[in-house]
């Protein structure tokens, strides 16, 4: 179908741009989002079922296009470059962890504000705000009851009373019941920026974090401590020297950072990290942010380029929001979900 379309365009004497010829990868927090009838965040991979794969490898489309172009110009094309082989480094054990709650005292002092502040207006980065990652909002409540976001969560919040997970708020879930309890307790909202809409009419509405009041029993929450969790390279570097890392227990529910080591004997090669058994989070390798994973799919592997690895020891750090596994797998084939063909 693709070759026929390209051939027909060329027969008409028109020029053509193949979108995408190579999709590549939305590394880090750069995956963006779409919004037509509803908000939809993009996955990390931008493989796009393109002519070249996410890792730059050839596909059947590539060779069929070469055949077509060779016929059009009436002579054979030069041989394409050799493909770099991919490595399967096997299982990687994540043997240490530190809960987010244990990390808070070592972070820069939180911003104190009577009202919630959206991510972009936080007094961070030389007063230029925070662009990506997470924001943790803390306040004090007395008792439990009905928590309502009024659709002011951008884009997804995990809700905790002290360190107990209560549930999630997002575009579809706007309310939760908070359990009753004795005395004053901390209400914590860990809000994730899942990606800004990158074209269309919603471009100027892309504010993240809490963009307005959240209500408990119809009363707006006030007096927040706000932690920016942008997870920039300097933040990841500081984690290496943070006290409090301990052995991962048999069962643990996040949010927490986990770390382990990948040992490579020879020249590093591209690989793909498969996070079966993990729920949702972000992976860092030698300080590089590979991007997001989420068990709901369709993407099941993250592309790890060989140049980001080194001979010897390589540090793997995972920020897991909820349920952690114990290992991740380094495989030589990506798993990006079924490709759907539409007639």
From TrEMBL:
InterPro entries recorded: BetaGal1-like_ABD1, BetaGal_gal-bd, Galactose-bd-like_sf, GH, Gly_Hdrlase_35_cat, Glycoside_Hdrlase_35
Glycoside hydrolase 35 catalytic domain mapped to chain residues: 2-70
Gene3D superfamilies noted in UniProt: Galactose-binding domain-like
Start and end residues of each Beta-galactosidase galactose-binding domain: 255-314
Domain Beta-galactosidase 1-like first all-beta: 129-229
Keyword field contains Hydrolase: yes
GO biological process: carbohydrate metabolic process
Molecular-function GO terms, alphabetical: hydrolase activity, hydrolyzing O-glycosyl compounds
Keyword field: Glycosidase, Hydrolase
Residues in the signal sequence: none
PANTHER family for the chain: BETA-GALACTOSIDASE RELATED
The family this protein is said to belong to: Belongs to the glycosyl hydrolase 35 family.
Name the UniProt record assigns to this protein: GLBL2 protein
Originating organism: Todus mexicanus (Puerto Rican tody)
Gene (name only): Glb1l2
């Amino acid at each position: 179908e693709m070759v026929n379309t390209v051939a027909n365009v060329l027969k008409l004497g028109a020029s053509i741009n193949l979108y995408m010829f190579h999709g590549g990868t939305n590394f880090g927090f750069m995956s963006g989002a779409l919004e037509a009838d509803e908000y939809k965040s993009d996955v990390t991979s931008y493989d796009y079922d393109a002519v070249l794969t996410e890792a730059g490898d050839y596909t059947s489309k590539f060779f069929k296009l070469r055949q077509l172009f060779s016929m059009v110009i009436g002579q054979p094309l030069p041989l394409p470059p050799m493909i770099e082989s991919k490595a399967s480094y096997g299982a990687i054990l994540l043997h240490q962890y530190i809960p987010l709650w244990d990390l808070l005292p070592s972070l820069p002092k939180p911003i104190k504000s009577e009202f919630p502040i959206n991510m972009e207006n936080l007094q961070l980065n030389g007063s230029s705000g925070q662009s990506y990652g997470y924001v943790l909002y803390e306040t004090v409540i007395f008792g439990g009851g009905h928590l309502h976001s009024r659709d002011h969560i951008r884009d997804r919040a995990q809700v905790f009373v002290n360190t107990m997970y209560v549930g999630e708020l997002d575009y579809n879930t706007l309310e939760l019941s908070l359990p009753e309890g004795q005395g004053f307790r901390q209400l914590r909202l860990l809000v994730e920026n899942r990606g800004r809409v990158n074209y269309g009419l919603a471009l100027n509405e892309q504010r993240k974090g809490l963009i307005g009041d959240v209500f408990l029993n119809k009363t707006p929450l006030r007096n927040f401590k706000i932690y920016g969790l942008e997870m920039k390279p300097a933040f990841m570097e500081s984690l290496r020297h943070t006290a409090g890392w301990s052995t991962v227990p048999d069962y643990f529910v996040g949010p927490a950072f986990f770390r382990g080591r990948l040992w490579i004997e020879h020249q590093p090669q591209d690989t793909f990290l498969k996070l079966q058994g993990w729920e949702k989070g972000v992976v860092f390798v030698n300080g590089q942010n590979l991007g997001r994973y989420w068990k709901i799919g369709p993407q099941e592997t993250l592309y790890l380029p060989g140049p980001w690895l080194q001979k010897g020891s390589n540090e793997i750090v995972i920020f897991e929001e909820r349920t952690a596994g114990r290992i991740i797998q380094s495989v030589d084939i990506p798993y990006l979900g079924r490709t759907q063909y539409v007639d």
